[in-house]
Write a structure and sequence with these properties.
Strand content: 25-35%
Order of helices and strands: EEEHHHEEHEEEE
Number of strands: 9
Helix content: 25-40%
CATH class of one domain: Alpha Beta
Number of helices: 4
CATH architecture of one domain: Roll
Distance between the termini: 26 Å
Largest sheet: 6 strands, mixed
Structural class: alpha+beta
CATH topology of one domain: Nuclear Transport Factor 2, Chain: A
Shape: elongated
Length: 266
């Protein structure tokens, strides 16, 4: 079993090396074999012995004491009064709350009718396999904010590649995505996801020389990524293009060129 030190999720797949949520390297954990020990009571303890049963003695009232008969009517009157007060309290509460509940029901009905009218007049949204709840979010315009967002997407993209997480890749890549790998062969989104395979040899990766070009709802991120496996380092230059759709950034293009392989001291 492996655990993510960031989100504390556990994974049973022995081939996973990185968390599929945030990319944190997974660490091995051992199951807890501690058992609860229950100690039976000491049957030899004298405290468990009880005294011998003694039958109750008959009570003889002292001489000269005359029992008085209790009257039941004060209790009946008290219970009847409490019942009447409870009925009055319920009636007063009902008189105060019923109008409020009625107004709330009428308001809820008006809101439901208004939403139904809006849904009937609004145009149907375009079909897209990559949807998001915050589809009306405005396009980010702050350069540093967009750079941070795209850097996070690149990390998620890398983890999804290593884990062959096709669901995550379907979210990151736009439907019209066209990629070009180091071999120069173009790939559509369908081909990219279909041919992706899990890679368990990579220990870590680093991005450098990141540069962002932001134009309206279009963004282009260039840079270098280095992958470390055992005592080797393999570097690539990449150019990834993104578009703001359905309230989030989606990749429409990716071009990767290998720079070379070198031995490093990790």
């Amino acid at each position: 079993m492996k655990r993510c030190s960031t989100c504390n999720r556990t994974f049973t797949d022995p081939n996973l090396r990185f968390c599929i949520e945030d990319g944190t390297p997974l660490t091995d954990v051992e199951p807890d074999d501690d058992a609860t020990v229950v100690t039976p009571p000491n049957t030899k303890d004298d405290s468990w012995n009880t005294a011998a049963y003694q039958p109750p003695r008959s009570y003889v009232p002292p001489s000269g004491v005359v029992k008085r008969r209790r009257r039941a009517w004060p209790w009946v009157v008290g219970l009847l009064g409490a019942f009447i007060l409870g009925i009055l309290a319920i009636g007063i509460a009902a008189v105060m709350l019923v109008p409020r509940v009625g107004r709330r029901v009428e308001q809820a009905q008006r809101d439901a009718n208004r939403r139904a009218e809006n849904s009937n007049t609004a145009p149907a949204p375009e079909s897209n396999s990559n949807t998001n709840q915050n589809v009306d979010a405005p396009v980010p315009t702050d350069h540093e904010q967009v750079l941070t967002q795209l850097k996070d997407i690149e990390d998620q993209w890398t983890v999804a590649n290593f884990n062959a997480d096709k669901k995550k890749l379907d979210q990151i890549l736009a439907d019209d995505f066209v990629g070009e790998g180091p071999d120069g062969q173009p790939q559509s989104k369908t081909d990219y996801i279909r041919t992706i395979k899990r890679n368990t040899r990579i220990d870590k990766w680093e991005f450098s020389n990141l540069k962002l070009m932001l134009t309206g709802d279009r963004a282009t991120l260039t840079g270098t990524v280095a992958f470390f496996a055992e005592d080797q380092k393999r570097s690539y230059d990449f150019t990834d293009k993104f578009v703001w759709r359905d309230g989030r950034w989606q990749s429409t293009s990716s071009v990767v060129k290998e720079l070379g392989t070198s031995g490093v001291d990790l």
